[in-house]
Amino acid sequence: MALKRKQVDTSRHQTKAATAVTTVTKVKVTRVDNAVSIAKKSFAGLIEHKKKISTSLREGKNLTDIKGIRFVKPF
Amino acid sequence: MLNPSELYPVESGYFFYSSDNRYFNIYFTYYDIEYQENEKIRSEEYLMIGVEQIPKVPEIYNNEELAGGDTKPTEEIDIALTTAIKNFFATNPEEILIYLLSTERGKQAARKRRFTRIVDKLGEDITCFNYEFDSEYPDTGFLVLTNNPETDAIEAIFDEYVRQFI
């Protein structure tokens, strides 16, 4: 089955410094067979990664106490 | 005094709360995304932003008084999240950030509405690509957010990545 791709909104905005472009692209993916690709496993892992963090935080744990997951303080 | 939707630094990112007395943690975490390219496995490390409800106010803010809000709790969460994303790009130029939102079955519409609200609030300086899944991933989607000018190259990477789900 083909990848359904739809450009939902594209706009150009002229600023004083430069031209900034905002693009919102929607891609919908439909699975058709049971083959497990590297990318699929990687995405499943990403969901598990988030679930692990979610469970720990809801239980009141500090992020620093969640083993095996790296965090960054970006400020 | 603390105010709803404002971000307060904690060891693990940001703390904020909504005026319906819910407390949240915004965090940034690394994840390796892998896919096959020209018969080689490509691995890219990306940062993911997440927001999660927490059971109590962090210890360092325990003695602070929490003010009430005059906006809707949903809006307060959106404001906090978009402020955190803008803060991230202000201090991390030309970066890429993933926002993954998996919901319970049947809540795809709610996720899409949140994505739309966030994209609207972020404005023109941040480029967003939205990927949605059905079938194997019935209630999952993610946004790729970037302020890197090489948007075509970034879009090509994620298009190649999700193309392998088919």
Q: Mind summarizing the main beta sheet of chain B?
A: 7 strands, mixed
Beta strand % of chain B? 35-45%
Low-confidence spans of chain B: none
What is the H/E string of chain A?
A: EEH
Q: What structural category arises from helix and sheet content of chain B?
A: alpha+beta
Radius of gyration of chain A (CA) equals 19 Å
**Largest β-sheet summary of chain A:** 2 strands, antiparallel
Lateral strand order in the biggest sheet of chain B:
1-2-3-4-5-7-6
Can you walk through the features of this model?
The complex is a heterodimer of chains A (75) and B (166). By secondary structure, chain A is an alpha+beta fold. Chain A is built from 1 helix and 2 strands, in the order E-E-H. Chain A starts with a strand and ends in a 17-residue tail after the last helix. The model of chain A is unreliable at 1-20 (pLDDT under 50). Chain B contains 3 helices and 7 strands. In chain B, strands 1-2-3-4-5-7-6 form a 7-stranded mixed β-sheet, with helices on both faces. In chain B, strand 2 (13-18) and strand 3 form a beta hairpin. The model of chain B has no long low-confidence stretch (mean pLDDT 89). The interface between A and B is large, with 49 and 57 residues. Strand 2 (19-29) of chain A pairs parallel with strand 6 (127-133) of chain B.
Sum up the structure in keywords.
A: 75 residues; alpha+beta; 1 helix; disordered N terminus; B: 166 residues; 7 strands; 37% strand
